[in-house]
Structure formats: structure tokens, C-alpha cells
Design a protein that fits this description.
The complex is a heterodimer of chains A (about 160) and B (about 260). By secondary structure, chain A is α+β, with helices and mostly antiparallel strands. Chain A is about 35% helix and about 20% strand. Chain A contains five helices and seven strands. A five-stranded antiparallel sheet of chain A has the order 6-5-4-1-7, with no helix packed on it. Chain A starts with a helix and ends in a 6-residue tail after the last helix. In chain B, a hairpin with a 3-residue loop joins β2 and β3. Chain B contains twelve helices and three strands; from the N terminus they run ααααβββαααααααα. With about 260 residues, chain B is mainly alpha-helical. In chain B, α1 packs across α2, α3 packs across α9 and α7 packs across α9. Helix content of chain B is about 60%, strand content about 5%. In chain B, strands 1-3-2 form a three-stranded mixed sheet. The chains are: A alpha+beta (about 160), B mainly alpha (about 260). Chains A and B meet through α2, α3, α4 and α5 of A and α1, α3, α4, β1 and α9 of B.
């Protein structure tokens, strides 16, 4: 019974974390930069960095990790850092690609938009505005490195 | 409301950062010129850029907080929902949005989201989410509504391409006209909030959010069955007051069936 059990465990580990990605298929980068790693581990050496909305070939699936390639460049990426479909490159009213601009420094935490504040004033929602501003302040006080530490401690994301 | 008109109004509002109640300091000529350019680039929901989404999202967030009793001002609860929420959102299709999560001071059982990254869960639902997997499932569903731009599609529907030039021409540049435009903007926000609070998204939209949210929870490392189990729990606890439970969503039984 040991061999079937080992086979089952191996099959489980090799199975895609969800049906979206499979060897031979495609995946797309969705961040301004995506690191291709030497091994399927979050702290492995970075072999290359790929820009936004690049099409990658899925070479291998190992649990929640994918080995992908773009031309001669290849490496491991956590599945959650890739998209099944190409991210939008449509331009917003500001002329920037909608999704790409979200990944830039311009997307840093910002307070309630002035026009939204005006809206709250017109609608008599001063208390609600105060609540949303408190929510923004309290949420923004949690820094990205704290979220990263949480992921690591809880074994979520690339730390599974 | 014509979607293009709404987009033009958005640009007026985002461009007019000096606009405060009395419309002081607003260069209407510049705004009108910019609004004319809106008509050239606005094509469906893709024409709503990050700044416009931020204005819509902030306004809808204020309405949500105002309608559902404000926020539960408990830093421990806020820390939990934001750590789990941002862990999920980081692996969504829009990881670069500024994601904020909060608990509404309402005992009803529901959750809402507003464009640009605002996610709300009621205290009633928060208390029913027994563990992190259940809470993550609910948050992932709301994150999916934002990443799929479901609320923005409400204002992007309609006769979108019609009347671009007439809309721009109608901006005669006087304050009375601007007041009328602000009223139109408010009506656009109302369209979204009526969907969120009363009518709900159409069932297919909710099923899509269920599917995207389930996959997001799974890839992040939370239970793939979290949402289904949470919905089953809600279903088993539904009473005569069940209209208060996800009243703006499709029937629980159908959602559970589709998640199996």
C-alpha cells in the first residue's frame, strides 16, 4: 500500500493548485515586475525580471508553483503572481494603460478623492466620510512588510 | 443615464480638484476642453481610468458607510480583516490597487465593495465567519467584484457612444450648468448604490464573483471550499429573518450548487 500512497501524494503535489494553469499552456505577468526564480521557493535566487503583461509559456506545474519561460529566459513563479488572461492594456482617461498604472508608484495609498469629499458634503454624509477616512487611515497604517510577515507566519501565498 | 455623460462628469470632477462647495478656483474652460477629449477615448468600462474609478469608489464607499451604520472602530478587528484581505488582494488580478477593508456596524448579514479597492463586511457576517477560511472566502468574493469591475460596468452600459459631441457642446461653462452636471454625477453613483443595496448584481455576475473569489482563496492558500461551507452555514441558520441574509444576492442553494 505504500507505493500507491506515495503515487497519490506525488500526484497531489504535482497537480495544479487550480485548473487554470497546465504545462504547455500560457500565463501572463500582472505586476510591473515579476521575478523568475531559480527554484520553486520564495527566497530562491532571482534569475530574471519580466515586465507587465508578458505572455509566458508554462513549462511545468509543481503544486502552487509554475516553471515558465519567455524565449531563452525561464524560471519559477508562484501561481498567484500570474494571470490566466492577459491584463488589460486599455487606456484610461489619463492616457495611461489602466492596469499598468495601478502597478506604479502612482497607486500608492491616497486619501479619499476631493470629488468624493464634495459628494459626501452634497449628500450630508459627514459622519460616513469620517468613517471612510478612519478606515483608510487604519488600513494604510498596516504596512506591506507586515502583510508579508503575516503571509509567512500563516504559510499563505508563496510561503505555502 | 448616458454612460459617456457620466464619464465626462467624472473627468470634470477629477480635474476640478479646487472645487469645494462654492466651485471656487475652477477653470471651467480647461475642464470643458478636457471633457471634450473624454469623448475621444471613452470606450466602455475600459475608458474609466484609475482617477475616475477612485472618485466613484470613494463616493460609493461613503454611501455604504452611511447606509450601514458606519464602521466598527475596533483596531484588532481592522487588523485581522486587512491582513487577510491584503494577503488575498496581493494575488488578485489587480494587486496594485490601494486595498482597504472594514467592518460595518450593522447586524445584517452582507458584504459590499466599491470600485478602487474598498471592501466592507457587516458585523453580522463577520461574527458568522467562524475562522480565517470563512472570512477569506467572503473577502475574496468582494475582491472579485472589484477586479472584474462589476460596479463600473453598471455606469458603462447604455448608449455609450452616442452623443459624444453633443455632450461636450452642452458644457457651456457656467456654474448653473456645472451644478446640473454634479446632479448627474450623483445620479450615476445612485445607480451603483441601488444595485448594491436593493437590486443586487444579476445572478451571472454573482456567480462569476463566487468563482473568481473561490480560485483566489485557493491559490492564496485558504480553503477552496470556504465560500461553499460559509453559504451552507448561512443557509442552515436562515430563519424567518432570512431576507436579511445576503438579501441582494442570488438564492443560497443555487450558489452552493455551483460551487460544488
Amino acid at each position: 500500500m505504500k507505493i500507491p500512497l506515495l503515487v497519490a501524494i506525488a500526484a497531489f503535489l504535482a497537480a495544479p493548485v487550480y485548473a487554470g494553469f497546465a504545462p504547455g499552456g500560457t500565463a501572463y505577468t500582472k505586476r510591473l515586475e515579476t521575478a523568475l526564480l531559480a527554484e520553486p521557493a520564495p527566497l530562491a535566487q532571482t534569475l530574471a525580471r519580466i515586465g507587465y503583461a508578458h505572455k509566458l509559456k508554462v513549462e511545468e506545474v509543481r503544486g502552487a508553483w509554475l516553471r515558465v519561460s519567455e524565449g531563452k529566459t525561464a524560471g519559477w513563479v508562484f501561481a498567484g503572481n500570474l494571470a490566466e488572461q492577459k491584463p488589460s492594456e486599455n487606456k484610461g482617461l489619463d492616457g495611461l494603460p489602466v492596469a499598468a498604472s495601478e502597478t506604479s508608484a502612482a497607486a500608492a495609498a491616497r486619501p479619499l478623492a476631493p470629488a468624493a469629499i464634495d459628494y459626501a458634503g452634497r449628500r450630508g454624509l459627514a459622519q460616513a466620510r469620517s468613517d471612510v477616512e478612519w478606515m483608510e487611515h487604519t488600513s494604510d497604517a498596516i504596512k506591506n512588510d507586515q502583510v508579508q510577515a503575516f503571509r509567512q507566519a500563516q504559510k499563505k501565498g508563496e510561503f505555502q | 443615464m448616458n454612460a459617456l455623460r457620466f464619464l465626462c462628469l467624472l473627468l470634470v470632477l477629477t480635474a476640478a480638484s479646487g472645487l469645494r462647495g462654492q466651485f471656487g478656483g475652477l477653470d471651467l474652460g480647461k475642464v470643458v476642453d478636457t471633457a471634450k477629449n473624454v469623448g475621444k477615448v471613452a470606450k466602455g468600462v475600459a475608458g474609466i481610468g484609475p482617477e475616475e474609478e477612485r472618485v466613484i469608489g470613494g463616493s460609493v464607499a461613503v454611501e455604504i458607510a452611511g447606509t450601514y451604520g458606519g464602521l466598527v472602530r475596533d483596531e484588532k478587528i481592522m487588523r485581522r480583516v486587512n491582513l487577510i484581505g491584503r494577503t488575498l488582494a496581493g494575488f488578485s488580478d489587480r494587486p496594485g490597487l490601494t486595498w482597504r477593508f472594514g467592518v460595518l456596524a450593522s447586524n445584517s448579514v452582507n458584504a459590499f465593495s466599491a470600485p478602487s479597492g474598498y471592501v466592507f463586511i457587516t458585523r453580522g457576517l463577520y461574527q458568522m465567519a467562524a475562522d480565517d477560511d470563512a472570512l477569506a472566502a467572503v473577502l475574496a468574493h468582494e475582491i472579485a467584484h472589484i477586479t472584474a469591475r462589476h460596479a463600473l460596468k453598471i455606469v458603462a452600459r447604455g448608449d455609450f457612444l452616442a452623443g459624444a459631441s453633443s455632450i461636450a457642446a452642452s458644457q457651456s461653462g457656467n456654474v448653473r450648468n456645472l451644478e446640473a452636471q454634479l446632479q448627474q454625477f450623483d445620479l450615476g453613483v445612485k445607480q451603483i448604490t441601488e444595485t448594491l443595496f436593493t437590486k443586487g448584481f444579476d445572478p451571472q455576475t454573482e456567480y462569476e464573483a463566487d468563482r473568481i473569489g473561490r480560485d483566489l482563496a485557493a491559490v492564496t492558500g485558504y480553503s477552496r471550499d470556504g465560500l461553499r461551507l460559509m453559504l451552507q452555514r448561512l443557509q442552515s441558520q436562515s430563519t424567518a429573518d432570512s431576507k436579511q441574509v445576503f438579501s441582494t444576492h442570488p438564492p443560497l442553494a443555487e450558489r452552493i450548487k455551483r460551487l460544488q
